[in-house]
Design goal:
The protein has 299 residues and is α/β, with parallel strands linked by helices. It has three domains: 80 residues, Orthogonal Bundle (Arc Repressor Mutant, subunit A), CATH 1.10.10; 97 residues, D-Maltodextrin-Binding Protein, domain 2 (3-Layer(aba) Sandwich); 104 residues, 3-Layer(aba) Sandwich (D-Maltodextrin-Binding Protein, domain 2). The protein is 39% helix and 22% strand. The protein contains ten helices and eleven strands. Strands 3, 4, 5, 6, 9, 10 and 11 form a seven-stranded mixed sheet that branches.
Length: 299
């Protein structure tokens, strides 16, 4: 089989249409269609069901797609290993984590990382509620918030993340500062929505803090995004529990009720075992660990 045709097939299977695959590959829709037709003729089986709304893989197409993805991942890995033979770490590096952690903590440190390692091209893939597959190189590194169980992954504890209670100065100037957990009854509370799975257990603990057993406060706003909660607090909407790293990025936020301790959990630096000798992985791992150590020293 012709690898160029397989590469085009892989792009079409991912995109679900000849037109979108053509844009990704910088080819015309007709050129992509011809290559897929030639591949189907060579194999003697249809690879796609053609529909008005797009393309759907046939059963043989699904089998081929899984194989091509595996081969492409191995080729990417081989290229990465060849690049590791050079003196300075270089090449692409895909890091995935949540929108909140990536937006508030990780991105603010990428400028310094780039100045130290200018030949490493970082792509941040910030997603919530799904985990990209490290074994198939959907990402090279993940920062995750629970211990990983897969045997082919290496993990290193990066930091402990703690939740605290925050409000903006603007909100407190207007509404006063609660002096006890019971006084939260008098304030606007922002919590995580219940329509999607929460990133950690007991996410909405603030609704119960200081309340009589069996009662729960009604929130003024629910947002199914930690970053969205952060933006709502910054706007002066109300009070919320936030991870400490987010508040550090917003000096206009004020910690209140420090005696209230929310949930805490560890963040882990995770990568595939086959990348354990990668200089790019070592570079970003050690860099982030130094950043955490500096944060701790300055706290």
């Amino acid at each position: 089989m012709d690898w160029d045709q397989l590469r085009i097939f892989n792009a079409v299977a991912e995109a679900g249409s000849f037109t979108r695959a053509g844009k990704k590959l910088n080819l015309s829709q007709s050129a992509v269609s011809r290559q897929i037709g030639a591949l189907e003729n060579a194999l003697g089986v249809p690879l796609f069901h053609r529909h008005a709304r797009g393309l759907v893989l046939t059963e043989p197409g699904e089998d081929l797609f899984e194989t091509v993805k595996e081969v492409a991942a191995k080729l990417t890995m081989a290229t990465a290993r060849l690049n590791e033979g050079r003196d300075q770490p270089e090449g692409p590096l895909k890091i995935t984590t949540t929108v909140a952690f990536g937006s508030a903590w990780l991105t603010s440190r990428m400028n310094l990382f780039h100045s130290v390692y200018p030949d490493i091209s970082v792509s941040l893939l910030l997603v919530d509620n799904i985990e990209l597959d490290l074994s198939t190189r959907e990402a090279d590194v993940a920062i995750r918030f629970a211990p990983q169980q897969q045997p082919n992954l290496i993990q290193r504890r990066l930091m402990t993340i703690r939740y605290r209670v925050f409000a903006s100065r603007e909100y407190l100037d207007k509404n006063g500062t609660p002096e006890s957990a019971e006084e939260l009854d008098l304030h606007e509370l922002i919590v995580y929505g219940e329509d999607t799975p929460a990133p950690i257990a007991d996410m909405n603990w603030l609704l119960d803090a200081g309340s009589p057993t069996g009662t729960r406060r009604a929130p003024a706003l629910t947002v199914n995004s930690v970053y969205g909660i952060f933006r709502a607090v910054r706007s002066g909407f109300g009070i919320a529990a936030l991870p400490f790293y987010m508040a550090e990025e917003a000096p206009e936020l004020v910690e209140i009720l420090p005696e209230l301790a929310g949930p805490s959990f560890d963040a882990y630096f995770v990568y595939a075992e086959e990348l354990r000798h990668s200089r790019r992985i070592v570079a970003v791992r050690d860099f982030l660990l130094r950043q955490v150590e500096q944060d701790t020293d300055s706290a």
